[in-house]
Amino acid sequence: MGVILTIIRREFTDWWRDGRLRWLAGGCILLLLSVALLGWQSTIAVVDARSAAIEQETENFLNQGAKNPHAAAHFGQYAFRPTLLPAAIDPGVDAWMGKMVWLEAHRRNLAEFRPAEDGASHGQAVTLSVSWVLQYVVPLLLVIMGFAAVAGERDRGTLALLVAQGLRLQTLALGKGLAMSAAIFMLLIPVVAVVIALYALTPTAIDTHDAGTRLAWMSLGYLLYIVGFSGVVVCISMLSRSARTALFALLIFWVSVVVLIPRLATDSAAARHPLPAASDFWAAIKRGEGADVVSEIPEERAARLRESVAAELLARHGVGRIEDLPVNFTAVYLQRLEEADAPAFDHAYGKLWAAQENQRVSRSIFGVLSPTISLREISMALAGTDPFALWHFGQAAEAHRRILVASLNGAQARDGAGRGFYVAPANTWQQMPRFVYEPPLVTAVISRHAVDFILLILWALIPMLAAWLIARRTRIAA
Amino acid sequence: MLQAVDLHKRYGDVVALERLNLTVEPGEICCLLGANGAGKTTTINLFLDFVPRTSGRALVCGHDVVEHPLKTKSLLAYIPEVVNLYPSLTGIENLRYFADLAGLRIPSDELIAGAVRVGLGAEVMQRRLTSYSKGMRQKLGLAIALTRRAKVLLLDEPLSGLDPQAANEFSCLLRDVARDGVAVLMTTHDLFRAREIASHIGIMARGRLVEYLRAEAVNPSRLESIYLEHMRAWA
């Protein structure tokens, strides 16, 4: 252990005295601090806007006055997707996902308010993030710091001196790899301290729901990623005949693994599992695909349903006219229509989600070639900024929409019997269910991304094993 | 003590070293002379276990270098043709680094005393290696070897590129080291310097030790004649 610490100490002295690396590390800290501040600022802004919007929305719904309950269902309300604290670290695809869902009768809506559509400046703010720096810039920094780890010793002739005095190449490689990883973690310390201080000192309504556990798992992912990269840098440095060759090989590796393969994975997944076009998506819902009755003319389907509901109610209650029914016919019919349309929404949204899920699985397979893909999937999933977070929220919002509409229709069916147009009293809305959303449990997120985690663990272990084997086989020449 | 017993190295069809038998006792300096490719550096590499031997044995203080690599390496020190070390570190930091790697906890004043012994002043040791001449770096390499209290010293053309004064100083230091009971094996092209400092001289050609003689038994001009005769014979 003493020998490894000696190697680490010397590496740090070397980096400190090398002005270029000092500037590079300083630049990296500044970049990380800047993106952390940006992430914090945009997250707080979204969280505060959401809190204000929820308050306003609740007030609007509760104070709509005396009104027909089904009209109130059309008046609707917004469900706002929560922003978790780790989203400040990794905004993922949050900017493209939509922040809220409009809940109304007869229709399941897609999420609205995508920050990415709000203009370039906002889009850039969410793209530049701590996760982006850690996933893309830090590996490059590791390459620059470590390309000469062993190849430089060989160039200088110190490798022969070190081995001649009994230093095992495995020990040297381990010391170099640990030094690189430790240097990166030291760069992160001031950034983490500033971010924690910001969140601790700023009063905000941010959802800290299991944030500690999520951040701990995220940290583990990034730790594996950095350790793996350090290992690869040491391996390539050991295999290269000169430091220059090592730098060249590592830059090609970085471009391939961090930039090209993730891009290829995304494009390939999108090509293999295309998402339905918006026009096809809504047309399928309109046709009632997946529902009991499929028809190109929705009005015809509705008319047939109206007739069957009327016949059923008249028979059940033994009356001859709709006006004589002990329930409000319109409300019962509208609720039946709601229930009849639900499978069509489930079918269309299910297909949309299946395509997204297939894309994720397809991307994850590329994690065998690029740990950046596995890490990105894990990181944004834990940050609650991946498509699953939106899907999970959308499902909860839809379940609430159905309960809310059923409650409103139920109120009208019960209290509006025998009345043509029923107007419910103003206090009716306070008796309606409220939307309470719980994001998915961390355990659920982890189990969804178990393969990504396994790939990351392998990514961290394989370079270590390879370094050990390469060190054993490497011959030194005097 | 350093000992080669039928030490043989072959690269494919090429014989780099042919059944070398050689013993360097404590206090002796053995200089290996020979043209490029004669097998001098291969001999050093085999004692360092840098390359696998084809057959035979290389022993350091009675321990086989292949069977006991760590033990033998703890007993020897090696100085290459060019001692570059770490340019970003000072002389004393380089010395401390190698001592620490060897697991030796040596106080700074003792390290500086070792450096002063090889002719590197305390002030010089505080400077970074970027300002060191080749001679100073060679001396620092020797200081590292002394710090480790090695029993065997292997030097691969350490005088190459040194000016006459630096070469002379370095030779005197080597004699001092040998007097302390260290067995020294050195390769060189410098016949006259070899004659001056060595106790034994070996002449190598085409991987063979073709002549082995006591240095005091020949004068410089006779040594040159013998050397040239062998070079012509094996050309």
Give the number of helices of chain A.
Answer: 17
Structural class of chain B: alpha/beta
Give the overall average pLDDT of chain A.
87
Poorly predicted runs of chain B: none
Protein structure class of chain A = mainly alpha
Number of domains of chain B: 1
The chain pair with the largest interface is:
A-B, 25 and 34 residues
Question: What level of helicity do the residues of chain A show?
Answer: over 70%
What is the β-strand count of chain B?
Answer: 10
Radius of gyration of chain A: 30 Å
The shape of chain B, in one word, is globular
CATH architectural grouping of chain B: 3-Layer(aba) Sandwich
CATH topology tier name of chain B: Rossmann fold
* Poorly predicted segments of chain A: 120-126
Radius of gyration of chain B: 18 Å
How large is the share of residues in beta strands of chain B?
25-35%
Largest beta-sheet characterization of chain A: 3 strands, antiparallel
Q: Quote the distance from N terminus to C terminus of chain A.
A: 27 Å
Order of helices and strands of chain B: EEEHEEHEHHHHEHEHEEH
Explain this structure:
The complex is a heterodimer of chains A (about 475) and B (about 240). With about 475 residues, chain A is an all-alpha fold. Chain A has one domain (about 1-475). In chain A, about 70% of the residues lie in helices and about 0% in strands. Chain A has 17 helices and 3 strands. Chain A has a 3-stranded antiparallel β-sheet. In chain A, about 40% of the residues are buried. Mean pLDDT of chain A is about 85; it is low at about 120-125. With about 240 residues, chain B is of the alpha/beta class. Chain B has 9 helices and 10 strands. In chain B, the strands form 2 sheets. Chain B has a 6-stranded mixed β-sheet, with helices on both faces. Chain B has a 4-stranded antiparallel β-sheet with strand order 2-1-4-5, with helices on one face. In chain B, α6 (about 135-145) runs parallel beside α7 (about 165-180).
